[in-house]
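Notes on consecutive records. When two proteins share a document, each keeps its own sequence and its own token line. Never mix them. Below: protein one.
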Amino acid sequence: MANTVIGASVGFYGGSSNSKESITDTIARLERERDKLGRENERADSEQINKRINNLENRIGNLQKRLDKLKTEENDGECKTCESRRYQDVSDDPGVSFKSASKIASGNVGAAVRGHEQEHVVRERAKAEREDREVVSQSVVIKTAICPECGKSYVAGGETTTVTRSKPSVEAKFQVGEYDEESEKGRFFDVTV
């Protein structure tokens, strides 16, 4: 399977990657070009040169924003809100993980929450078996949210729902169907209730 990268070098020329060094080099080159045009503009005031200088300043500003974003991502890529996020189980089940608030590395949160919710699934099945009940359905919902500070999506938690019912105590068999004894046509079906 081929990997496709879209827009890796959009916005500046001469570089083919978004590395900090490449962006820094491009910013320096554009600043030199801007300064050279500024000196030319001092000798002959030209509207066209002013437009080129403004265009270069816009590009330098955009590249500086991109460089700042790369520097932020390099520092674990977490804003203060994401860095201070903790996970804790709020159920009344004492036998599962995360009973006290814990920090989870951002790359491991999804797996940790799924594993935690699986603990609830297993424990609820065992509880139903102990109470001589049958599990009608179980579902797990993994909740996500958007960080208000950095705008990144993150796993916000999970919720396990288990529905049980009493096991039927007595089974009764009935014959259901139509049967004509004279013509010997038709059929009965055995039904267990």
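Protein two starts on the next line and is unrelated to protein one.
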Amino acid sequence: MTPEQILAEPPRVLTQNQRESYFERGYVTVESLISDKTIKRLNEVTNDFVEQSRSITRSGADYDVADDHSADSPKIRRLKMPDRLHEDYWGFATGLIADVAADLVGPDVVFHHSKLNFKWDAGSDDVKWHQDIQFYPHTNYSPLTIGTYLADTGMDDGPLMVVSGSHNGPLFDQYDEDGSWVGCLSAEDASTVDTGSVDYLTGPAGSITVHNCRTVHGSPPTGRPSGRPLLLNAYASADAFPYTAHPQPTANTGKVIRGQPARWAHHDPRPCLIPPDWSGGYDSIFAAQDEEG
């Protein structure tokens, strides 16, 4: 569907102004959308996984851990694919925020993936500028990611940062000069980012951030070892079909969670960079950007 067709549909959660702002700027935020009760439950589940990670010594199928992760001081960079790990994560992914996705991709919504990122390292946990769609090209650019802050997130907590309007700009090469995938802009391309257009998406627990798959984004390092968790769920319009292997599929990948399956694919004529063949597996953006192996 085109933005005009999507905006002609009645809104479910967002205001029409918020929807229009998303298409204009490539992102939107809503403060305190998620109830305190829901956030409390998600944090309980998340804390259980952090506790379980004490027995983990290296990254694997469920956890991506920092180099200094230990039983005494667990430091998870990412809980991988939480939608498959606990029913409360999946229930949340198919609840209110699925209606937010419908407001922005159209009434027919497909689930793509989930992940839960943390900030622990007080200065060494930045995420470099990147765009998402080069990781998983689709026939159009409807895919988006909805982040939910499980804790209050200010400037000292490494909030999501986005370049306003960059979704209408170029897609960047996310390989390095040797042809290795690094999942981020080169230093040269990053130097072209208009710092005056960067917005830092802070907010209290229960706030959501939504960014388009073409939007240039990242996050600054934390100023304290807060453990800030950000739950991320990605969706696409049902008429957006992937044409490369999914980086980390689950049994829920590709499920239609609102509306109906598409009978016709919608094709955006703008080209997309092709990532490596992920069919053999994928670690995480942290491993790629840090060039770990």
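For the record: The longest strand covers residues 109-119.
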